[in-house]
Fold this sequence. Notes:
heterodimer, A: alpha+beta, six-stranded antiparallel β-sheet, five-stranded mixed β-sheet, 24% strand, B: mainly alpha, 4 helices, 3 strands, globular
Amino acid sequence: MANPNLSSLxxxxxxxxxxxxxxxxxxxPVIRSIRNAGFTGKIVGFVYDAxxxxxxxxxxxxxxxQMPYPSSGAEVFLSRLDYILKHTRIDVIIxxxxxxxxxxxxxxxxxxxRGIHTYLPTESNFHLRDKTKLAGFFPDKGISVxxxxxxxxxxxxxxxxxxxxxPLIIKGRFYEAYxxxxxxxxxxxxxxxxxxxxxxxxxxxxxAGDEFNVVAIGDGMGGAIGxxxxxxxxxxxxxxxxxxxxxxxPALDEFAKNIISALKWRxxxxxxxIKGFDNxxxxxxxxxxxxxxxxxxxxxxxxxxxxxVLLAMGHQVEPLPDYKAGTLFIRHAEDIISDISLMGEVxxxxxxxxxxxxxxxxx
Amino acid sequence: xxxxQIKGLAISDNGFxxxxxxxxxxxxxxxxxxxxxxxxxxxxxxAIIQNILDEYDxxxxxxxxxxxxxxxxxTALNLIED
Lengths: 363, 82
């Protein structure tokens, strides 16, 4: 029941998703939490483009490497990784972006052969949390999910109202969700989302109530190593939580634990849950990675990113301490001053070395 | 009147109230703070009203009406149940 201390850990950790700003990725807060656990080893940032702001943050990462997009395929990904491994050892990778998690799951063996550890779910468990699968898998396990219709054809919108009354939510499989007040709006959102993200889409009943988010680490056997629930206090026009407070609600904790148990989830995740005004808890979404607000967990007493590093390395980790309700986060954006040449290094070379040559982990 | 929910509130001396089960927060004035503290300590309406009458220059009828109105607000916020 103690927080991990990484001060004696002599490894190299790679973290993805270094963009902050209006749609922040979780990489920067994950790194901050790892550093706050006393980790003094090397941290490598994996980025997809030169505009990921964490590249330019002073004292955040020791090296940066540009990675190919997940859609490039396994061969390109492994080829890039092998190039990187010629420049630095990597012991642990923590992927933090939805679209890339699956490639790290599928390549677990290839990563292991290269001495790289991750702490992620199995592929089948990963797919069970797909938005299109929630309504089919969880209700039988006693976990309520809002009434859902899977949309694979435009014609389904014609009599959709018979199944779910308007207003309802039209969601993409991966991203975007809109409230449709009527059939005409449903038509519009269907076409918009289909064009961007493809089919299937999801029509879901709107649940009036309070929304909560939970960050957790599953142990892969049905248990949770850590779990911190929050209520968003500040929400941007893009729906991003820029402020929140840790809540303490035993029923909510139990509900979250039941989800992790039903999935036998292994690794970090974020649960989106609504407590309806009828006092029923509904599972809305499961994101297969840490959320961008994960430092709130550390602030509330659970350093979940640090625990994930140890778990990836195969260490036994006791359940993290109880969280402190009332812990608050407010996101604060500041400008980083840098030089255009640094951007040039990323765009031209795809790599940046801040501390090369004098690092104890250098090969 | 069920005041169980109030017992779980974090009430600061400056009148800031945090409900850890929902994440909602509220502000109340000096009198609202006093009433909440007394409700939290299981005092009856009569005892609370008498306490306020001892401290403030207000008629009992007016205070009773204001008290009932305050309780209605707390009920609407799901902080107490009828």
